[in-house]
Amino acid sequence: MGVLTRVRRGVLPVEVATLALMNAGAAVVCLLAALFPLSTGAPTTLNLAVAGCAAALAVLMLVLGKRTPSWLIHGDIVIAIAAACAMAGRSSTPAGELLAGFVLTWIGVYVTLFMPQRQARLHALLMTVGLGVAVIASSLPSGLTVWVSVIATVWLVVGVVGHLVERLHAQADTDPLTGVLNRFGFERAARREQAVARREASTVALVLIDLDGFKTVNDRGGHAAGDQLLIDVTKAWAEVLRPRDVLARYGGDELVVLLPRASRDDAERVVRRLARAHDAPWTYGLETWRRDEKLEACLARADHGLYAAKPSRRHLTLAAPVAGRPVAG
């Protein structure tokens, strides 16, 4: 199975595949630099060592695929920065020094695209210090020019491109109608919370909600009425949820709430709070997310509970008077 095929099938995360290919490319370049040095003083031994290390990391990541730990990715980046700076410091020509700086620029692009801004800035700071030490050690007249050019480019990428990437991620994760997370954004947030719950040995509750009579609202008032209902409901619920709780529009008139550090009883209390926040009728399925369970399995159990509760119109027994209206039941 090729790399692109494995990426498409989700076997190989794109950030892992990209770093593996970067390692492979670095191995080839360093091997060529060792075989065909630019000058008699070129660091041939260092190039061979970097080529071997980069090739080994590329193979390891392709084998591990989605099991590649984050520490290995960060460690690979640190090794790559150290190797590039070492080659810049050992370079005997401005061309070699500039080539090492070019490698740092590509590392800057990678960390900006695939890492949070804080982590990307830390790696950029490491590049700044590392290359600064390297150009001082090299004593080449072009050292200061190379350092300024490379580091300015790295920080420009981290700052400008990083801001654009964050905006694109936010748009990709957000439902444009309600402003809450969409399905993709919810799944990303849910998996992060599950990882935290595993570390803390805490529980996570999940509430899947289906708005009742939504089709009737659309039929009577048009899609604008349905859209406004979704906007009003999500706004009202967002105001009564905790900052860490995750509210998302999972699709159509289906909403989902993830409650970190919440037991089933805690989740039932949140459900009652949601019922008091807005008088729209709805039915829900509530489940505790097991630590060894996939998100899809937990959602399936909540979905089963939701539709089992539909005939009894469970929401009606939970609703509290809103705006002076009596509780239905």
3D architecture notes:
The termini are far apart. A 4-stranded antiparallel β-sheet has the order 2-3-1-4, with helices on both faces. It has helices spanning 3-8, 14-35, 44-64, 70-90, 94-114, 117-138, 143-173, 183-200, 214-221, 223-240, 264-277, 295-309, 314-318, and strands at 204-211, 246-251, 254-260, 282-289. The protein is built from 13 helices and 4 strands. With 329 residues, it is α+β, with helices and mostly antiparallel strands. The model is unreliable at 314-329 (pLDDT under 50). A hairpin with a 2-residue loop joins strand 2 and strand 3 (254-260).
Quick rundown:
By secondary structure, this protein is of the alpha+beta class.
Radius of gyration: 27 Å
The pLDDT mean sits at 84
* Shape estimate: elongated
The proportion of residues in beta strands is: 5-15%
Distance N to C terminus: 58 Å
Q: Helical region count?
A: 13
Q: Segments where pLDDT lies below 50 for 5+ residues?
A: 314-329
- Sheet with the most strands? 4 strands, antiparallel
Helices and strands: which structural class? alpha+beta
Strand count = 4
> Spatial order of the strands in the main sheet?
2-3-1-4
Helical content class: 55-70%
Secondary-structure element order, as H and E?
HHHHHHHHEHHEEHEHH
What are the key terms here?
67% helix, four-stranded antiparallel beta sheet
Give the SSE layout.
Layout: H1 3-8, H2 14-35, H3 44-64, H4 70-90, H5 94-114, H6 117-138, H7 143-173, H8 183-200, E1 204-211, H9 214-221, H10 223-240, E2 246-251, E3 254-260, H11 264-277, E4 282-289, H12 295-309, H13 314-318
Antiparallel strand pairs: 1-3, 1-4, 2-3
Helix pairs in contact: 2-3, 3-4, 4-5, 4-6, 5-6, 5-7, 6-7, 9-10
